[in-house]
Structures are given as C-alpha cells and as structure tokens.
C-alpha cells in the first residue's frame, strides 16, 4: 500500500477509537440530566471518571497525526472551521472543568451549575463533531492554494445539522448502553428504557441521513462503484445496528455495547470511503480538493510517523487495557471519587 | 488591531495560562514518587498521608493542565495555518510523538494514581505514580524539542512543494515548506538539550516552592506539623539543588544562545553595538537611541561570561538588518527579571538550608513567611523565561540558519549584516530564485481568519480562563484548609499512630467546605 493511504487508514482508526471511547463519555454527559438524585448523578460522572481523560487523548493524537501527516489538510480545516472549532474547544474545556469541579463542594447550586455545564458542553461538543463531519461530506469552497473562501454561515448547511443530530443520538445510545453496564438498581432500570429510546431516535435519524446523502451528495457514494467490497461496510453497519435490539432482548448487554461500538467503526469507515481520496473536499472545484497525495507530508515523515506509531501503539493499547481492567465492574462511590 | 497581533496575544494568553500547570505537575510528580517510594520502603504512614494529600492537589492541577492543553494542539491550525503548512512535516512529528509517547502514558496511569488507591496494591500504585511522572517529563521533552527546532532548526531542508509534477507557484509566489531530512538531528538540534534541562529545572523549582509554600503556611499555623516538616524538608533539598543547577544551566545556555541566536542574546542584554559587551545588572533599554538608560553594569562582563575574556568583542544588534532585529525592551526586562529571581532563589534556599542544618529553620517565622509567598516568584520566573525566549526570537517564527564559513564564523554581507540561508525555488516563468529558508511570524498567521474572529475567541478564552483561575484558587484553598487528613480516610480510624494528624483532621473538618465529601 502507498504510505499516504496507510496514514489515511490510520487516521480513520484513530478517529474511530476516539469516537468509540469518548463517544460513551459524551453520551453520559448528554444523558446526565436523566439522573434524578445527586447520588445517581455522581454515579454517572464516576462511571467515566477515571476514563474520560485518556479517551480524549485519542482526539489530541488524531490532531497531532493529522498535523504531521497531512499538514495542508490540518491547516485548511482548522482555519476554515475557526468559529466551530473555538466553540468545540470551549466545550471541551468546560466539560473537563465541570467534571473536575462539581464534586468540590456540596452546595446544591454549585453542583447544579456544573451539571448544567457538563450536559451542555457534552451536547455541544457532540453536535459540533457531527456538524464537522457533515460539513466535510458536503465540502467547503477552496481556492487554488487550498484556502477557505466561504463564510461561517456556509458551514451550517441543513445536512451538516442533520449529521450533528445523528451524532447526538448515536453517542446517547452508546452512552446509555455503557451506563447500563456500569450501574445497578432503579437507575439501571430507567437506563434500560433509555437504551430503547435512544436506539429508536438513532435509527430514525440514520435512515433520514442515509436518504439525504443518497439524494443530495452524489460524491459520497461514488467510491462504492469503484470498490465493490465496500458494500461489506454497509452490511456490517446494518447488521450491527440491528443486533442492538436483539442483544437487548436477550439481555446480552455487553454484546449490545460491542454492536454499538461496531456501528461507530462502520460509520467512520463510511465517512472515509465517502471522502477518499480527499481529506478535504472542495465544493466549488474538485481540482482544488486536498487529497491524501497532494496534502501529505514528505515520504520521510510518513515513514518516521509509522515508526513512531508502531513503537507507541502496543504501549498505548497496554495502558488502555490496564486502566479499563482496573476500573472494571459496577461504579462504587468511594473517597477518591468525583 | 491586526490579525497577527491578536493571534500573538491569544497565543500568549493561552500558553501562559496553560503553562501555570505543567511545571507544577512535572515538579510535583517527582515529589510524589519520592513520598510513595519512602512509604513503601519504611511503611511510615506519614509518607502515605503526604502522598495522598499531594496527589489530590496534583490531580486538580493536572485536570486544568489537560483542559487548557487541548487548545494548544489545535491553535496551530486555527490561528497559524500558514505556519502549520510550512512546519507540519517537521513539527507535526514531534507533536504526534508527544501524543503517543507521553499523553497516553500520563492519562492512563493518572487514573490509577488518583482513583486507584483502593483498587490496586501499593506497589502497582507506586508504579503508576512513576509512570505519570515519566509521562509528564516525556511530554516536556517533545514539546521543547519542537519549540527548539524553530529556534535553531537542523535536520531539515526548505523545499518548494510540487503540484501535478510541477514546482508549485501560486499568484507568482513559490510555495515552500520545511521537510525532515534527519529525525535525530531535528531532535538533538543545537538548543534542545540546553533548553530542556533549563525547563525541567524550572519545573522542579516551581514544584518544590509550591510544596514549601503550603507546608510553610501549615507550620506557621501550627497545623499538621509533622507532615509539613517532612514535606518542607524534602522540597527544600530539591529547591536548593535545582536553584543552583538553574544558574549553571542558565550560564551554558546563554553561551549557546550567543552561538546560535546572537540577535536574541543581544536583545536580552541590550547589546546594540558590536564590541566588548557590558553585563547590565539593571537598566532600561532604549532601542531608538540604541543604549541602555539608568544602567548599572560590569564593564566587559558579558564578554567575560561568553568568552572568559573582558575585551572580546560580541556581535551586537547592529549586525542585523532593521527588519531582522527582535524587540529589545520585553526580552531585556523579562530576561533580567528571571535571572534576578534565580539568584534570589539561590540565596533563599541556601539560607534556609543552613538554618535547617542548625535545626532552627522551623522557628524562623520570618523565613517561613517569605516561603509562603516565594512560590509566586517561581511561577513568574518560569513564565518570564519563556517570554524572553519567545519574544527574543522575533521576528522569526522559524529562524533561518545563518550563513557561516568553514570555521563556523558568521559571514557578513557588504553592509556588515549577518546573512540568512536561502532555498532555491523555481518561479512561474521557469527561472530560479532564492527565498529565505525560514518563516517570519507575520507570515505564519492564518490567511482566512479575520481579526473579529480572533478577538471573539480571545474574549471567550479570557473569560473562561479568568473563571478557571478563580475556581482553581478557590478549590486549592479549600483543599489546603482541609489539610492532609481532610478526607474520609482519616488515619486515626485505621489505628495508625499519627495522632497529631488525626486531631488536625477533626479541626479542619469543621473549617472545610469540601473535605471528605468530594
């Protein structure tokens, strides 16, 4: 395989890893208002307490890898999406801070404020991720140098907003299943209902988005004609989504969680297939698109990057494994909890 | 204000606020390893109490460091996209390495460190503590390497990009970027080791002064006395050694700066005209008049420090074209303030060490009061050092190499100015030309971002960070008031012999809003 293509696949893998891991964190934030007592709210927060920070590192590493391997795409995307990115950064800071500070006082007003911050920032961040993906599928106007020529309002197309809502429903579902695995008793029963509600909303939005994409964005499906094998991704996606209610009926909740993770992986693959070979699609003139070939770093850097990734990745997987193993099982509140 | 000024201000705001926290976590991480190691070795519960207490404060600092650090990763692209295109091939690798080698290590084991006390055994916990401390140091390695490469770039070449098989020219201007040639030459560029050592020493000084500040306050208030004495004594040792090391490392670094970035050292010292250079102990430089007003100086002192000879001439700012000169006032003042603080730390820690040796330290209330506030000086010294380093390298965001002859001496052009290396490029009409092999800060900014957008985001960060600072101080104060026994985990309940501490916990419970209920 070509080096640039390997890096495109690796970036997709980093993005999928981020979406699976921080996806349930964000979902927990979105579902947080459903907790009824302070004890329940603490259980929600502590379910992700030791995990969210490490999960966010996937995003940081994705950013670093995009910068290193496709600097043209990194520069174009971030400067074009200046306002949404600033909002996203603001949301991510607020979310971290809300988690850290909510437990530092018992005052109900104090906690309500941070609960609101946690919910609002998780919702905003998820929505913004979806909008960015939707915007990326539609493309943005670029000039010959790869500079954004549009305005902020161009980014908020109805399609991008729809994908934003889809992301919210997806992460809410993913988070609900995760929380179900981490809780017990009355709150778990209520989460059982919310798994169904969020799955239903996700399904509706998924079908709407699929239809919209097929009708309005021909470029997104063009690759499926070149690569016949890509149909497998669609099949896996549909099977994974369908397996969620099946697993819920059978009370196999871990399987449901794996299925929702697989759904996320399949959707990231669909995104990659829709974009390829572009990293940033120019909506005005396809000759201005930034592809994995014209936006990539030099061969030397792509190789160095592979060596770094190959050296580091086994360690990363080991740490992640250790942490998830250490904090396995139901949430128990203790002295060191948030 | 224009986009360049606003983007620089926003970068300064976000990085300076962020940099309040990493030095604290790097410095404190080492102390946590020391405390937990001693607990494992001796089984003395005071060490465990201390480790648990400082871990809580460490976690608070770490969380804000992470929250504000994520901005830095993306701000290169949002505000400095032209720079990102130019350096991505080189700089991006260091940043990605930081993510893979450092951030995963830190964040993974931080979870065990903070939340894992009762989930893993003491040895595993100790291991996690070491990993977090290592992770934070790895992180500083990669980020200082990336920054140093921009100051003294090596291991790369500047080339014209190729589009559709042709040298790329847009609007008549060739598009160039830096590409890696030799990864290890980039990592070990001429300034990275010097700067990394100095940065880490600065972190140890700050971490130690932070711990001494809180411990001194406990000693003055007669609370948690045994705990505070041990914490203070351990931190004092670190602070004394680190302060002495900072002076030594600073000296060698200054010599290196002269060799690699003479304009920067000239700005630090207000050395305008090439010739024997005085060492200004104090003064206010005037770049217009090219002199230092109100100066108190040692004649030939700077020449002596750099070349061990009082009359050896040093290159001044007059060897640089006007447009290649850094501003003088800010680097001069911040550099001198940092150096002054450094010598103050040496004097303070030596006095305290002597008193400690004579067994009178903890009765010297005046000195303990100085230590309560000296931590602000340590914060200031760390920040001022970076201000001097970053303003002193202007106008370059990536400094081009200087042209040298076979002996390594700088080659001057016919006007007597230092010359910068160039890269050969192909122009639109097929002829070749030369472009400077570096990037000016003014050319690095995002072309498509407006000053209104930057102003908006800067106001947002200003408000958010202002709020964060207040909350941090509030929670930090609450934790300090609650003290090392503030948690539910009172050691008296476990039957340990730490009676004074257990009594302390009774007292502090009533004073605290938060202790034990978080």
* Rg of chain B computed from alpha carbons, rounded to a whole number of angstroms: 25 Å
Distance between the termini of chain A: 47 Å
- The order of strands across the largest sheet of chain B is 1-6
Query: Which band does the percent of strand residues of chain B land in?
Result: 5-15%
Q: How are helices and strands ordered from N to C of chain B? A: HHHHHEEEEEEHHHHEEEHEHHEEEEHH
Uncertain regions spanning at least 5 consecutive residues of chain B: 487-518
Instruction: Pick out the low-confidence regions of chain A.
Output: none
Notes on the protein architecture:
The complex is a heterodimer of chains A (338) and B (518). Chain A has helices at 3-31, 38-48, 52-69, 71-80, 82-102, 108-138, 152-155, 158-182, 185-216, 218-226, 231-249, 253-275, 299-326, and strands at residues 278-280, 290-291. Chain A is an all-alpha fold. Chain A has one domain. In chain A, strands 1-2 form a two-stranded antiparallel ribbon. With 518 residues, chain B is mainly alpha-helical. Chain B has a domain at 194-393. Helix content of chain B is 62%, strand content 10%. Chain B has helices at 3-18, 22-42, 45-79, 81-115, 122-151, 183-187, 192-220, 225-260, 262-269, 301-307, 329-357, 365-391, 451-482, 499-511; strands at 156-160, 162-163, 166-167, 169-170, 173-174, 176-180, 275-276, 279-286, 291-298, 313-314, 396-398, 422-426, 432-436, 439-440. In chain B, helix 3 (45-79) runs antiparallel to helix 4 and helix 3 packs antiparallel against helix 13. The longest helix of chain B is centred in the middle third of the chain and has 36 residues, at 225-260. Chain B is globular, with a radius of gyration of 25 Å. Residues 487-518 of chain B have low confidence and may be disordered. Chains A and B meet through helix 3, helix 4, helix 5 and helix 13 of A and helix 3, helix 4, strand 6 and helix 13 of B.
């Amino acid at each position: 395989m070509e080096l640039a293509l390997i890096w495109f696949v690796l970036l997709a893998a980093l993005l999928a890893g981020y979406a699976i891991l921080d996806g349930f964190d964000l979902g927990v934030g979105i579902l947080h208002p459903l907790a009824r007592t302070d004890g329940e709210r603490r259980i929600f927060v502590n379910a992700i307490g030791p995990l969210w920070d490490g999960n966010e590192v996937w995003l940081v590493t994705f950013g670093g890898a995009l910068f290193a391997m496709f600097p043209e795409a990194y520069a174009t995307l971030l400067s074009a999406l200046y306002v949404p990115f600033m909002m996203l950064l603001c949301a991510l800071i607020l979310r971290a801070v809300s988690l850290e500070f909510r437990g530092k006082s018992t005052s109900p007003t104090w906690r309500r404020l941070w609960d609101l911050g946690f919910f609002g920032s998780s919702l905003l961040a998820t929505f913004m991720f979806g909008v960015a993906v939707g915007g990326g599928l539609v493309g943005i106007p670029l000039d010959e140098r790869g500079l954004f020529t549009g305005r902020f309002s161009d980014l908020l197309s109805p399609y991008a907003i729809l994908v934003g809502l889809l992301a919210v429903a997806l992460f809410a579902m993913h988070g609900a299943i995760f929380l179900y695995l981490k809780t017990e008793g009355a709150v778990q029963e209520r989460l059982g209902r919310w798994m169904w509600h969020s799955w239903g909303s996700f399904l509706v939005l998924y079908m709407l988005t699929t239809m919209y994409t097929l009708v309005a964005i021909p470029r997104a499906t063009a690759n499926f004609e070149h690569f016949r094998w890509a149909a497998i991704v669609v099949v896996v996606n549909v099977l994974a989504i369908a397996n969620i209610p099946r697993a819920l009926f059978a009370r196999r909740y871990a399987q449901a969680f794996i299925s929702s993770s697989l759904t996320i992986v399949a959707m990231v693959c669909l995104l990659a297939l829709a974009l390829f070979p572009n990293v940033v699609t120019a909506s005005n003139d396809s000759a201005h698109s930034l592809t994995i070939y014209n936006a990539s770093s030099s061969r030397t850097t792509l190789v160095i990057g592979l060596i770094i990734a190959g050296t580091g990745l086994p360690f990363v997987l080991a740490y992640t494994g250790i942490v998830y193993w250490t904090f396995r099982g139901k949430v128990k509140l203790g002295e060191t909890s948030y | 204000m224009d986009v360049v000024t606003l983007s620089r201000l926003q970068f300064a705001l976000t990085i300076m606020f962020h940099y309040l926290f990493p030095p604290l976590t790097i410095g404190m991480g080492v102390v946590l390893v020391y405390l937990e190691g001693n607990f494992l070795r001796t089984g003395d519960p005071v060490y465990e109490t201390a480790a648990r207490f400082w871990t809580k404060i460490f976690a608070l600092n770490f969380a804000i460091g992470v929250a504000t650090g994520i901005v830095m990763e993306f701000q290169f692209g949002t505000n400095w996209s032209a720079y990102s295109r130019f350096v991505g091939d080189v700089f991006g690798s260091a940043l990605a390495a930081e993510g893979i080698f450092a951030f995963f290590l830190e964040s993974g084991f931080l979870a065990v460190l903070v939340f894992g006390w009762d989930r893993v055994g003491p040895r595993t916990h100790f291991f996690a503590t070491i990993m977090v401390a290592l992770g934070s140091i790895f992180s500083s390695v990669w980020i200082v390497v990336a920054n140093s490469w921009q100051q003294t770039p090596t291991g790369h070449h500047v080339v014209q990009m190729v589009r559709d098989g042709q040298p790329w020219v847009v609007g008549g201007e060739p598009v160039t970027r830096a590409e890696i040639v030799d990864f290890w030459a980039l990592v070990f560029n001429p300034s990275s080791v010097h700067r990394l050592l100095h940065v880490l020493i600065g972190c140890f000084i700050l971490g130690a002064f932070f711990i001494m500040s809180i411990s001194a306050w406990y000693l003055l208030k007669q609370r948690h006395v045994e705990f505070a004495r041990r914490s203070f004594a351990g931190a004092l040792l670190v602070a004394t050694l680190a302060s002495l090391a900072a002076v030594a490392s600073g000296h060698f670094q200054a010599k290196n700066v002269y060799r690699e970035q003479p304009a920067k050292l000239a700005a630090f010292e207000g050395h305008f005209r090439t010739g024997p250079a005085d060492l200004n102990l104090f003064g206010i430089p005037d770049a217009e008049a090219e002199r230092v007003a109100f100066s108190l100086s040692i004649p030939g002192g700077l020449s002596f420090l750099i070349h061990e000879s009082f009359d050896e001439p040093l290159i001044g700012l007059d060897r640089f074209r006007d447009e290649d000169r850094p501003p003088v006032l800010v680097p001069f003042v911040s550099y001198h303030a940092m150096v002054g603080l450094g010598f103050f730390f040496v004097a303070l820690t030596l006095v305290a060490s002597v008193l400690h040796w004579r067994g009178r330290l903890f009765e010297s209330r005046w000195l303990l009061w100085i230590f309560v506030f000296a931590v602000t000086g340590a914060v200031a010294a760390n920040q001022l050092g970076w201000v001097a380093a970053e303003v002193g390298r202007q106008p370059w965001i990536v400094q081009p190499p200087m042209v040298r002859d076979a002996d390594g001496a700088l080659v001057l052009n016919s006007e007597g100015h230092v010359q910068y290396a160039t890269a050969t490029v192909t122009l639109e009409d097929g002829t070749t030309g030369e472009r400077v092999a570096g990037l000016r800060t003014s050319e690095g900014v995002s072309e498509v971002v407006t000053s209104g957008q930057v102003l908006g985001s800067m106001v947002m960060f200003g408000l958010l960070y202002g709020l964060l600072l207040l909350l941090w101080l509030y929670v930090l104060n609450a934790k300090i008031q609650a003290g090392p026994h503030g948690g539910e985990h009172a050691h008296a309940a476990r039957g340990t012999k730490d009676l004074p501490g257990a009594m302390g916990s009774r007292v502090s419970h009533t004073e605290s809003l938060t202790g034990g209920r978080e």
